[in-house]
Amino acid sequence: MEGENEESDNERALINKPVWQRMIIVLAGAFNNIVLGLIMMMILLVQSPYFSSTTISSFAQTAFTSKSGLQAGDKLLEIGGYDINCSRDISFALVMIPLQTVNGEDFSIYKEDCGFTLARQYSSLKAEDYSEDELKAISEAFNSGIEKLNNAADKAEADKITQDTMAQVNELSKVNYVPEEREYMPERKRFRTDVTVLRNNEKIILNNVDFYTYLGDDGNPAISLDFSVTPIKKNIGTLISESAKGTFSVVKMIWISLWGLATGTYGMNDIAGPVGAASVVTQAAQAGLESSFGDAVNNILYMLMIITVNLGIVNVLPLPALDGGRFVFMLIELIIRKPVPQKYEAWVHAAGFIILLGFIAVITINDIVRIATGTGIGG
């Protein structure tokens, strides 16, 4: 804009406007990025028949979380200290949970093993060998046993529930299933953290909740949800509300990620520049195409939404050459009641711009190396 980096006699030039107007103008770009992200979020959510809440409705049959404290009806408030305001926060919170090596004899893990013993018995049965009524009776016996197991108070009770359920399923299925001997493992890998829930209008902190941990395609432990949440009916009000919550969730995630970079929680290989972002968008599109073209488009739109919001937030950081840096100089002007000499401000922004270009170059090289070798220059 005229008057942005130079003197001007035009009364409409930016430099000749009151400082409060220039502050609004310099923040308008970031604001529009957030608004565009909100619109993209609405486009994504409007396609859903309903929205996801943060209240647990049911668990998978061998859920880790139900055996370590969570219950149906719990409203999630925090996971590992990460505030949960919408279902998208749950996904972001899971990424933040550290992998731990835990005692293999913990009671929650003991219940997991008992649950898997019953699950192996149940999965060994062939549906075609039974009538619909027989299958229903077997399934009810199994589900009842799992529910009792989740609420067991100690190992002795867990053992009794497991044995009783196994005997009942054997009787109904007319199969004498003999379980494999439980393998003793002194250590287990678990994504474990504290969870705060609202249960019967009471705020409760559950310590050491285990989330479903499995080995990924690369052989490393990965995490997944093992429960379902209550749906939220879709209407114009909930669409606007959930879109706003989802966009705010992305904003919060980006701020936390930036703080992690500043404090050393994340390293060079956790950053992606233009090349890395393009690669991620391509991967998202390919993953979507495995199901449908529409899913590919939605995946791309979601990635663009994150990039758009990220751009808006980074641009308001108080760094030279960015809008946030210009805002700082305007704030100084507002405080001292006179502008900082433009030549000095220009020098600061020029130096910042050179540093920014160097940083972008390093990130781009790291992206290229990571794509070519699988690991970036950060190791």
Descriptive account of the structure:
- This protein is of the alpha+beta class.
- It has 3 domains: 14-48 and 238-373, no CATH class; 50-104 and 186-233, PDZ domain (Pdz3 Domain), CATH 2.30.42.10; 107-173.
- The protein is built from 10 helices and 8 strands.
- It has helices spanning 19-45, 87-96, 107-124, 132-150, 155-173, 236-263, 274-289, 293-315, 323-336, 342-373, and strands at 50-59, 75-79, 82-83, 99-103, 187-199, 202-215, 221-224, 227-233.
- The strands form 2 sheets. Strands 2, 3, 4, 5, 6 and 7 form a 6-stranded antiparallel β-sheet that branches. A two-stranded antiparallel sheet has the order 1-8.
- Strand 6 and strand 7 form a beta hairpin.
- Helix 1 runs antiparallel to helix 8 and helix 2 (87-96) packs parallel to helix 6 (236-263).
- 23% of the residues are buried.
- The model has no long low-confidence stretch (mean pLDDT 86).
Task: Put the structure in a nutshell.
The chain folds into three domains: 14-48 and 238-373, no CATH class; 50-104 and 186-233, PDZ domain (Pdz3 Domain, Roll); 107-173. It has ten helices and eight strands.
Overall mean confidence score, pLDDT:
86
Instruction: Provide the β-strand percentage band.
Output: 15-25%
Oligomer: single chain
Radius of gyration: 27 Å
Would you list the SSEs in sequence order as H and E? Answer: HEEEHEHHHEEEEHHHHH
- Number of DSSP E strands: 8
Spans of at least 5 consecutive residues with low confidence: none
Shape designation: elongated
Specify the helix fraction band. Answer: 40-55%
Could you say which structural class the secondary elements and strand pairing correspond to? Answer: alpha+beta
Total number of helices: 10
Measure the end-to-end span: 43 Å
Total number of domains: 3
Q: Major β-sheet, in short?
A: 6 strands, antiparallel
